[in-house]
Amino acid sequence: MPETSTARLLEVSDLAVHLPTRDGVVKAVDGISYTLNAGETLGIVGESGSGKSVSCLTVLGLINRDSAQISGRVIYDGSDLLEATESELRMVRGNEISMIFQDPFAGLHPLFSVGDQLVEAIRAHEDVKKRVARERVVELLHEVGIPQAAERFSSYPHEYSGGMQQRAMIAMALINNPRILIADEPTTALDVTVQAQILELIEKIKEELSIGVILVTHDLGVVRDVTQNVLVMYAGRIVEHGSTAAVFAEPKHPYTWGLMESIPLLEVETRDLRAIDGAPPSLIHLPTGCAFHPRCTQAFEGCDKARPELDQTEHHQAACHLARTDRDRIWQERRRRPADASR
Ligand code: SF4
Question: What are phi and psi of 251, to 5 degrees?
Fold first, then answer.
């Protein structure tokens, strides 16, 4: 497992989330384990439908337990959140673990000023006078980088830019001093310059408050820039897990290789960036054996039969039947060749 040095905040063990539908059971998350420490940003990366968002929503108790089959353990503060009552989960969501989403506008009520919404969020959890809450909100808006925070207090969400809306949602998430912030594609809807500013803000908050951050993204560039550890997910399972430095230096899984070759990364000498061929599989009818085998350029006999489990390499884990020496050799060859020649 990745090395950690500070207090453990969250321990997820063998988490599975299966969603029965008329067409069959969707195995959205299928046995994932990870930990999160204070002061750590953990990236969860993968294509749409890989299970990264569903796994986070489950941690927060936001997947309907009546319709989903959920198993495993999510240990927070000594208790299993999967066993918590709805009111206990509400307390955790309000005070301990916060989440921000891709579309900040959807999280704000269009008919109330941003400041009033933040005041109400404070007063929903604390018995404080409106004036005191208002002062705190102005301070918070200032802290998350809203210019002229006092004047902006009374502005409506549509009067904020996309970046400012996301800053307001981050302020909302921080209101009760959470210990964990889950950010689900927080910059995907923003332009590139604003993306960098929001990621910097999340990083600054993490450092100042010593909280743990889970950053869900499809963008490996974001993972490289702001995370310490990373999970690569494919078809509901973790296929690679390790320190970000180790995964970027020596990725061990063909899916991670494909992701790295499909984005501009200085370390990868790809002259012709290409997406991974094929599409993610149906989560109802998963391929046999390794779920990635229909798309894998390295697949060999047996990959379609036995499912590979995460192994323990020197720095991190990967789930692949290739021998470790072969993985190292193939990656070194791929990184030296143009993308077309490596496929
Ligand atoms: Fe590819 Fe086989 Fe490894 Fe799966 S187990 S990633 S198909 S080489």
Answer: -60, 140
Asked if residue 39 lies in contact with residue 205, where contact means CB atoms within 8 angstroms, the answer is: no
Which tokens in the block code for residue 218? 């499809």
Tell me which DSSP letter residue 18 carries: E
Q: Are 166 and 190 in contact (CB under 8 A)?
A: yes
Task: Decide: 321 in ligand 1 pocket, CB within 6 A.
Answer: yes
Q: Ligand 1 in contact with 292 (CB < 6 A)? A: yes
Q: Is the CB of 252 under 6 A from ligand 1?
A: no
Which DSSP string corresponds to 191-252? -HHHHHHHHHHHHHHHHHHT-EEEEEES-HHHHHHH-SEEEEEETTEEEEEEEHHHHHHS--
Alpha carbon distance 12, 32 (integer Å): 7
Nearest CA to ligand 1 atom 7: 293
| Other C-beta atoms lying within 10 Å of the C-beta of residue 316 | 27
Q: Is the CB of 246 under 6 A from ligand 1?
A: no
Residue-wise pLDDT tens for the chain (343 aa)?
Answer: 444 447 999 999 999 999 999 999 999 999 999 999 999 999 999 998 899 999 999 999 999 989 999 999 999 999 999 999 999 999 898 789 999 988 887 888 999 999 999 999 999 888 999 999 999 999 999 999 999 999 999 999 999 999 999 999 999 999 888 999 999 999 888 888 888 899 999 999 999 999 999 999 988 888 998 999 999 999 999 999 999 999 999 999 999 999 988 876 655 554 466 678 889 999 999 999 999 999 999 999 999 999 999 986 666 899 999 998 898 899 888 877 655 544 4
The token duo for 200 is: 């910097």
Helix%, strand%, coil% for the chain, nearest 5: 40, 20, 40
Q: From the CA of 332, how far away is ligand 1's center (Å)?
A: 17
Residue 275 per-residue DSSP state: P
Cβ-proximal residues to 78 (8 Å cutoff; 6+ apart), any chain: none
Measured from the CB, is residue 303 less than 6 Å from ligand 1?
yes
